[in-house]
Amino acid sequence: MSMKEMSLRSFLVELASDSPAPGGGSVAAFDGAMGASLVSMVARLTVGKEKYKEHQAIMEELMKDCDKMRDEFLDLMDKDSNAFNDFMKAMRLPKNTEEEKKERTFAMQEALKKAALVPMETLRRCLDLAKKAEIAVERGNVNAVTDAGTALLLASSSAKAASYNVLINLKSIKDEGFANQLKSEVESLLKAIDDTVLRGLKSLEENL
Amino acid sequence: MSMKEMSLRSFLVELASDSPAPGGGSVAAFDGAMGASLVSMVARLTVGKEKYKEHQAIMEELMKDCDKMRDEFLDLMDKDSNAFNDFMKAMRLPKNTEEEKKERTFAMQEALKKAALVPMETLRRCLDLAKKAEIAVERGNVNAVTDAGTALLLASSSAKAASYNVLINLKSIKDEGFANQLKSEVESLLKAIDDTVLRGLKSLEENL
């Protein structure tokens, strides 16, 4: 069953169970999905209001983009769990002969790459989320400004959690070119997200 | 229906809708619930392992405490939405006579206090979550260290989001004694949570 069909409570019970997946990677993706939903909500509470007439077009765009983003984050929840389970499968491959050992190592390395690329995808989307949440803070319905601010916080925690999941997998990846490329992308994304989030929160906190 | 029985997807659709509740306050509580679940998971992946024998007792305690904490955070999700809806109800009270106006103002002030006290409760629990997540980072199964780190990140984003929801309500509360007391509790809790989270993340990031 896709996680998105689970109840909030069942999901948490599954999360807390002694199976390592779902874990932090899926949680990161769900944080992103909640953030995108909050931006959609703020946009919905802004469109059609005379006071925010000048932001009408951008709010309609936010609504549409963030509804789509929410579904993409939700898909990443499942993808993250599946990537982890594929790695566990590769680890359980037979290793009796030299041939088998080689095949197992190859399968494990491929699975590790996938397990790094899924949270990388989450992280990339967090930058988009942070930018959109900043717009919601700046131009959205002022009555919902703390909701837009919460979306900024989620972009930040989701990004950080996703980065941990990329980096922990990179530690076991032998392909240095692959690892270095991802590592430098992680760094520049975290920096860009941090800048956006801090700017947005500053503007919010001045009004609290 | 309690939110905890909703599917992840339905919850997000409801969150993104143009009704202001559920909003950031419920999201803050759910972040706390995910954090508590991750600490439970790390503890479960630690108990019974020879390598972590010396931490057995504390991990069993973490497991029990965090399962309970998860349910408390889940209840706070509903409480937050209900508090907001109660405030909307108070706002819709009649205000035709002086008597009615007085009653409406009183009801609104009481509802605002409740709407500030619920996220305050979330915030208080976040300090407990941060402390437990730090233990999970330091002494839990090293294979799940990024999950424990994610719990720290969630304690931080949940706390910050909850604080916004306290502060925004305090702005309309006339009872200065009440407002000042909560404001100073918010400040000291955020400081204590920040210290704990930064310490835990530092220890985690050194190993990434």
From TrEMBL, chains A, B:
Keywords: Coiled coil. InterPro entries: Cyclodeamin/CycHdrlase, Formintransfe-cycloase-like_sf. SUPFAM superfamilies: Methenyltetrahydrofolate cyclohydrolase-like. Residues 52-79 form a coiled coil. GO terms for molecular function: catalytic activity. Residues 7-187 form the Cyclodeaminase/cyclohydrolase domain. The keyword Coiled coil applies. Pfam families: FTCD_C. The keyword Ligase does not apply. This is Formimidoyltetrahydrofolate cyclodeaminase. It comes from Acetomicrobium thermoterrenum DSM 13490.
